[in-house]
Amino acid sequence: MKFLDFYNPGRIAYSFEFFPPKSEEQIPKTKETIRRYRALRPDFLTVTYGAGGGTRDLTRELTAFIARELDIPSVAHLTCVGHSKSDIDSILDAYSESGVTHVLALRGDPPKGERTFVAHPNGFSCARDLAEHIRGRGGFSIAVAGYPECHPEATSRDTELHYLKEKVDAGGEIVITQLFFDADLYFRFVENARSVGIEVPIVPGVMPIANAGQVKRFTSMCGASIPKEILSRLDELGDDSDAVKKYGVEVAVGLCERLTVGGAPGLHFYTLNKSTQVEQVCAALRTSSSAAGI
To answer: 229-243, pLDDT tens digit by residue?
Structure first.
């Protein structure tokens, strides 16, 4: 099954992202959280990959668990950081042996403590080249990332869009976006992407707000913005954790409804390895008349 098989007219595809825990001892708890998502009827589940492959083995274990034990299409994130081409091939061989045939190809962030990305001398310098290599090997379906508000290192919006086109041409079958909180940003991004010839599905990334400080840190790192009205409301709620989470669900539901009504082909949720908020968002969407077909 290819990524494109998940996206069909008349329905919205659901996908969810998880990250490996910091230690092997935490794997059972993470697996139990992931197992809960089976009830949400996901089209696929993705697992992130630490800078420099720091969580490589745990990513492989979780993706194999999803593919084999849960029988759900499993997507492994794969980055260029710290890897030679032979390293990449070994990693892909291991995924294939585990029944994982979907990859999200990324350049990756610099390792902790470093500010700039430095390619391995025998590796890849960007996600485009990584995607092209994976496609050349065969046997994998490839997704790439998109940034509605531009990648923090992008020199211009036009340059960013043309580079995204190169990633798609190199093998990207779908684009999964970075998180955002304004649906208009997504629709403008899709319009601009279509204008440069990108025709593949562009899947919006959604993260329910659970903690004000946390979401501010995430957005500052990835170059996303938080609308003033959301920031103002978060300030009003202050340290009331339950109220913030409830508001986060409301914001996510409203955003997803606008996205689906506006033609988004699917919804990709950044779960932060939690279930309650995302479950509440999905439950609300599946009972909403505006989300028919989900």
So the answer is: 999 999 999 999 999
